[in-house]
UniProtKB/TrEMBL annotation:
Keywords: Membrane, Transmembrane, Transmembrane helix. The keyword Calcium does not apply. PANTHER family: CHROMOSOME 1, WHOLE GENOME SHOTGUN SEQUENCE, EXPERA DOMAIN-CONTAINING PROTEIN. Residues 6-143 form the DUF7704 domain. The keyword Cytoplasm does not apply. InterPro entries: DUF7704. The chain crosses the membrane at residues 12-31, 89-116, 122-145. This is DUF7704 domain-containing protein.
Length: 156
């Protein structure tokens, strides 16, 4: 039931590609915790072999939030024809994009631009977030969306 005026690229990314990638993040945070932590930075060494209970709990909570992210994005956007609703949800997700990038800062500033050194997790935690934020900014800026001339009604 997505708005007919939303181009295919936006629909594909926001309804399927991004939610599926969030589910992958949820899987790794919940079931492959050592790999998740090891691959968050350029250094692939963990200083312990058994994760502390609090770290395990925090990763399970993160997995739960990734799941919430995936379900909210897909179910809300696929159930409305309102561009206003799409934009409001995407503004919230854009704020979350910037918050997610800020959480990568302890890895050092190089994590934001040394893409040739990124592993798969860093591509997801930085590169894919750049892509999602760019898609949101484009959508919120009406790039590729049909505009309704002034006085001819409101776009919903």
């Amino acid at each position: 039931m997505t708005p007919p005026s939303v181009p295919f690229l936006y629909r594909a990314f926001f309804l399927y590609i991004e939610p599926i990638s969030a589910l992958a993040g949820a899987f790794y945070a919940a079931f492959r915790q050592d790999d998740y932590l090891k691959d968050l930075t350029f250094s692939s060494q963990l200083t312990h072999t058994v994760l502390p209970t609090q770290t395990n709990m925090a990763l399970l909570q993160l997995a739960n939030l990734y799941l919430l992210f995936a379900l909210n994005e897909h179910f809300v956007l696929s159930s409305t024809t309102s561009i206003v609703t799409w934009k409001k949800l995407l503004i919230g997700l854009l704020v979350a994009d910037f918050g997610h990038l800020i959480t990568m800062a302890p890895a050092g500033m190089a994590v934001f631009w040394k893409f040739w050194e990124w592993n798969a997790m860093m591509w997801g935690s930085v590169g894919f977030v750049y892509a999602g934020a760019t898609m949101r900014i484009c959508f919120l800026s009406d790039v590729g969306l049909d505009r309704i001339p002034k006085g001819k009604g409101k776009r919903q």
